[in-house]
Amino acid sequence: MKTTKIEWTEKVWNPSIGCNKISAGCKFCYAEVFARRLQAIGIKDYSEGFKFKILPHRLNEPLKIKKPTKFFVNSMSDLFHEKMPFDYLDKIFEIIEKTPQHIYQILTKREEIMYKYFLKRIVPINVWLGVTVENSLYKHRIDILQKVDAIIRFISFEPLIGPIGKIDFSKIHWVIIGGESGKRARQIKKEWVQEIFEQCKEQNVAFFFKQWGTWGADEIKRSKKENGRLFLGKLWNEYPDVTINYQV
User: Fold this and answer.
1) pLDDT tens digit string along 46-56?
2) Which residues does 199 contact at the CB level (< 8 Å), separation at least 6?
3) CA distance 108 to 122
4) pTM metric for this prediction
């Protein structure tokens, strides 16, 4: 289990790995590229590259950490992948419930499977559930997320590769925005970010601007580091207030 450079979390926990592309945001998947690199240098867990597999030997990793920590669950997969057995998911959530000092941030593009899983199960109070929405074609993921009784629900607009339009943020507590990075990155537009930002402020949703990525606010292509994380001249690192008893 490693500390991560992902700005909105602290560590990653991958009790399963591997995935397949299901929507536009998956096109230049960073996890797939990283998995191929790990396969090339002989890392055993990645002997089959980016093929989906469960890794039971990683299940107990969070139990070893006593300090309260934010975990991004499955940075190298989708926890609600079509091949994920529900009985293995049960084991993952058992570990989550045994470690109430931690926060587990779970992000999916497979909102229907997430919804089905929780129809007969309670979402632990230390779980934040989120969906990825890369452009307006995938706004329906928000509708499904709003039906799941999680204490914290969030949306990741990353990679933001198209305008989103009007959004109903009812029962949504947190928004993350990020542009795509890499040589083939698709462009993010400042006006798309601005439109989402204004709706967050109007609807009292915490706003986290993760990065511009390869394309800057001025629409010039540079390194991710050079383009930075400033929006409207400042850093936006807001988090949802977990002390509030949200209506679910």
Assistant:
1) 999 999 999 99
2) 166, 167, 169, 205
3) 18
4) 0.95
